[in-house]
Hints:
With 188 residues, this protein is an alpha+beta fold. The protein has helices at residues 13-21, 42-59, 116-120, 122-127, and strands spanning 3-5, 27-30, 33-37, 65-67, 72-74, 81-82, 86-89, 100-101, 106-111, 135-140, 145-151, 157-163, 167-170, 175-178.
Amino acid sequence: MLAIPNQYPKLTPIEYFAWEEQQLHRHEYINGEVYAMSGGTQNHSRIALKFGALLDSHLSNGNCRVFNSDCRVKIVETNDYTYPDVSVSCDPRDRVSTQYITYPCLIVEVLSDSTEAYDRGNKFFRYRQNPQLQDYVLVSSQEIAIDLYRKGDRGQWEIINYRTGDIVELQSINLSFPIEQVYRGVDL
Length: 188
């Protein structure tokens, strides 16, 4: 989904949370400014739902929790909040707040033409500030393609490109699956 800037005065985080509770649509909060989240396509919605269900099924008996796009992620050491399509936290510190998580180990963004540059650029830059994040997954909504950014042992990020026939490996939650699993029933 694309964040569209609004013409509102800068808000404090407390003002943002109070204001957003009164809104019909979600808004990301970056540097004191709110950005309306635009709607997605059917493919975007189906892929995010399938990915979240796959993760939730895999993690249902453990301490990790899977969140959909209604859950904010607080950017570490800032007062910025985003809405990824899917996120996973295994960190007990994320059980304290009911309004957001701060320490996801995995974030999934479903790409579209309008969001791809932001998701690969500034949004990923913000997410990388989190020392707990291990896997950042970018999923195409137009073809069978997943790009996985994985943090290495020394903190460097590597990219792994998965395409038709590949087995996706998410080390952060010890899950491997055929890439086609998140695209079943999706018209590309």
